[in-house]
Write the C-alpha cells for this entry.
Amino acid sequence: MSRTIHQSNIEALATRTMQGIGSFLLTQTSATPTAIAAIIKKYTTLMGNSEATRRELCEARANIDTFRGQYEEDVAWSREREAKLTGELEALRNQMVERDEQIVMLSMEYEVVRTSKMQAYTRGRED
C-alpha cells in the first residue's frame, strides 16, 4: 500500500526536527544561540537543496521516460516503414523479372518471324 506524504507533513516534521536539534544543541553543548541559528540555517538550506535536487531528478526521470517513449515510437515507425519499403522493392523486382521474361519471349518470337520471312523471301527468289 502506497502512502502519499503531503508537503505540510514534511514541513511540520522539518520544523519539529529543527526544534529538536536546537534544543539538543542548547542543552547538551556549549553552542551559542547564534551558532545554533547558523547550524539550523545550514540544515534548512541543505534540506531545501535536497528537495530541489529531488525535484530535478523527478523531472529528469520524466524527461528520460518521454524520450524513451519517443525513441520507441520512432523505432516502431522505422520498422514499419522498412517492412513496407521491402515489400514494395520485392514487388518491383518481380515486375522486372516478368518484363525481362517478356522481352526474351518477344525476342524469340521476333527471331522466329524474321527467320520465316527470310526463308519465304529466299524461297520466293528461288522460284
Remarks:
- The two ends are 110 Å apart (CA to CA).
- Helices lie at 7-28, 33-126.
